[in-house]
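Fig. S4 source data, part A: sequence.
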Amino acid sequence: MTGLSLSVLTHPLPALCAVAPSLRPRLGVRDRIDDPCGVALTFDDGPDPRGTPQILRVLEEMAVVATFFVTGEQVRDHPSVASDVVAAGHEIGVKGDRHRNVLRVSPWTLRDDLRRAEDAIATATGVLPRLYRPPYGVLSAAALSLAAEHGWEPILWTRWGHDSRATASPVTIADDLTRDLAGGEILMLHDADRYSVPRAWHRTLVALPAIIGDVRAAGLEFRTIR
């Protein structure tokens, strides 16, 4: 297939972006926004009928805009929740159809996976996504090539709240996400627990008002990525 003739040596190299932020700009992978007075709040792995609506409610009450990276299988299971994300004025991006490490699937399987995810999002929301974040933040040469074919910009993050870990608490989530926060950062949380510990989204929900307050106390405001 055109664009996917990748050697075994070059295919996994972009995965280093997960642990080597300096490599990201060279590969066209963004982890910041171009706004020294703003930060971008992002949520992964939804939409979820329990977590996403409650998080949307807090965001509305506190006048915060965010970006949601969704999986196709979750969108097909909960299309009205995906539609609510867009209707509320938030940005939506692609995580994949299934939540799998892209290094563990063939380029041709990944092509089908991403096409299915895009179709699911477009059907549920009427929006074609323009942002791509791979599961676990792990990229491959095939993932970058396919993102370019779709016209998607690869997006990672500068920090996350470790909210998908069993040891996380609302206090640690807020502290990990906002301690010494600087303008331009992209922050990552989760609004679903299908791929993590049970009720991980609930700890995020409890932490969210403190996170929003800390960001604004630092003199920063919330922006979408695009």
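Fig. S4 source data, part B ends here. The chain has one domain: 46-223.
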